[in-house]
């Protein structure tokens, strides 16, 4: 192959995309495994250490699902081309991108270990800290070891992939697949997520109605009608109250939430829910604030599946 006709652009494309997907996959796998550990080793201080919201778990799971197969395919293609001699193992493009990738990986590892020690020094659970650290170190050794192997292996006169490396590949595949499957135990299925998101929207809208009713009634020492609205239409008719057009209706059924006055200062809001939200629930914490006074406490809208009514009292 003549030097002037060698396709360096192809090398750059394959290696750059391969190393980029490797980074995305390893970072996603790192956080997925830690999220699974958090699920089975709970901390009494939930805000201590590495705690991921469910949206972040979804993002990292999607990263592994998309980036890892692309990396595997590109890696297989590059190895095949290197073995056949169609790609140069001593290409400057390959060496530069490989070393740059190793620098980025090392920086990410340092950042992760710093984060872990910050959580530990802040009082995170020791067992969880140790497991998190082992996960980070294991992924670091795997990624850096693979990079170093790739650099040295195809530079040898007769490169040959042995049984040890095949075992390593299968272990990585199994861990990646298990982390994705395990993530569903944290976030639930797409149908479960949709049901929970609908319930979250219902509570947000009930929150808006509660605030509008309190504003209609008036705060202590402030302006207001000093009486509860007879129905929800009075909230819309009041020019001093802003409530979104869809804020009075159920997001799924498009029917209005039930509103019933029970006394001079008390009323009920009713809605039908698809999931359970309780003190012991693993659902996302969604709360509704009492808008009686600035220093008032939060009121949880715990509910079961089906129709639930919430008694509320204005100040």
UniProtKB/TrEMBL annotation:
Organism encoding this protein: candidate division Kazan bacterium RIFCSPLOWO2_01_FULL_48_13
Asked if the Swiss-Prot or TrEMBL record annotates the protein with the keyword Acetylation, the reply is no
Q: Where is the DUF5671 domain?
A: 13-145
- List the protein's name: DUF5671 domain-containing protein
Pfam families for the chain: DUF5671
Per UniProt, the keywords (alphabetical) are: Membrane, Transmembrane, Transmembrane helix
Q: Which InterPro entries match?
A: DUF5671
Q: Which residues cross the membrane?
A: 12-36, 56-76, 96-114, 126-146, 167-187
């Amino acid at each position: 192959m003549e030097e002037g006709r060698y396709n360096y652009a192809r090398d750059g494309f394959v290696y750059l995309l391969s190393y980029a997907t490797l980074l995305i996959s390893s970072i996603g796998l790192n956080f997925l495994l830690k999220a699974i550990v958090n699920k089975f080793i709970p901390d009494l201080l939930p805000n201590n250490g590495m705690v991921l919201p469910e949206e972040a778990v979804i993002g990292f799971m999607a990263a592994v699902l998309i980036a890892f197969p692309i990396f595997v395919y590109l890696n297989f293609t590059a190895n095949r081309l290197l073995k056949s001699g169609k790609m140069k193992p001593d290409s400057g493009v390959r060496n530069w991108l490989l070393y740059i990738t190793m620098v980025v990986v090392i920086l990410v590892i340092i950042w992760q270990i710093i984060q872990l020690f910050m959580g530990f020094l802040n009082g995170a659970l020791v067992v969880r800290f140790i497991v998190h650290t082992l996960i980070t170190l294991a992924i670091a050794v795997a990624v850096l070891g693979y990079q170093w192997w790739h650099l040295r292996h195809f530079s040898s006169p007769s490169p040959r992939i042995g049984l040890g490396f095949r075992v390593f590949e299968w272990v990585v595949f199994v861990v990646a697949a298990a982390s994705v499957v395990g993530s569903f135990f944290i976030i639930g299925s797409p149908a479960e997520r949709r049901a929970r998101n609908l319930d979250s929207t219902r509570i947000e809208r009930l929150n808006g109605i509660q605030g509008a009713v309190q504003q209609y009634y008036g705060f202590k020492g402030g302006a207001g009608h000093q009486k509860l609205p007879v129905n929800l239409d009075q909230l819309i008719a009041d020019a001093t109250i802003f409530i979104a057009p869809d804020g009075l209706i159920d997001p799924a059924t498009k029917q209005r939430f039930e509103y019933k006055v029970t006394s001079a200062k008390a009323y009920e809001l009713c809605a039908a829910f698809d999931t359970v939200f309780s003190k012991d629930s693993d659902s996302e914490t969604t709360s509704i604030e009492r808008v009686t006074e600035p220093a008032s406490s939060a009121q949880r809208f715990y509910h079961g599946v089906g129709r639930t009514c919430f008694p509320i009292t204005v100040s």
